[in-house]
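User: Before I run my own analysis I want an independent prediction to cross-check against. Here's the chain; please return only the structure tokens and, at the end, one sentence I can use as a sanity check.
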Amino acid sequence: MTPPKIDPAAWNDGRSFIQGEVYLASDKYVSESLKTAFGLDVKKERPVLILQNDRLNAVPQMPVILVAPITSQKRVFENDYALQADGTLLHYDSIVQLSLVHAIPKRALVKRLGKLKEAELHAVKDRLRRKFAL
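Assistant: Structure tokens:
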């Protein structure tokens, strides 16, 4: 059986993504199971933090990207990371939900909001290393 042909132009719009960037993600391209599991059906768009490394982010044939949702809800699980509002990137104190890491289609990333400071990204990476025992 011949595998189906995938047209990269259907999901690759030429954008590049950097680990540590924060984007608004639309639920338009996200599966119903992920919407339900991660609360994406509550809002049409929500902020997410790009976790995937830059080498994989640069592969145009890769249609998905690893992210962690960001929420202003104060429920914190082990290894989640608290972000302080700075008025530019985030308007509310928020939580990077590292307990809910998942892959979403790159085309779901609709608007770049900014990038974490290096110290914050380093702290997030430390939490991920602890979470996955790396």
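Sanity check: The chain is about 20% helix and 30% strand.
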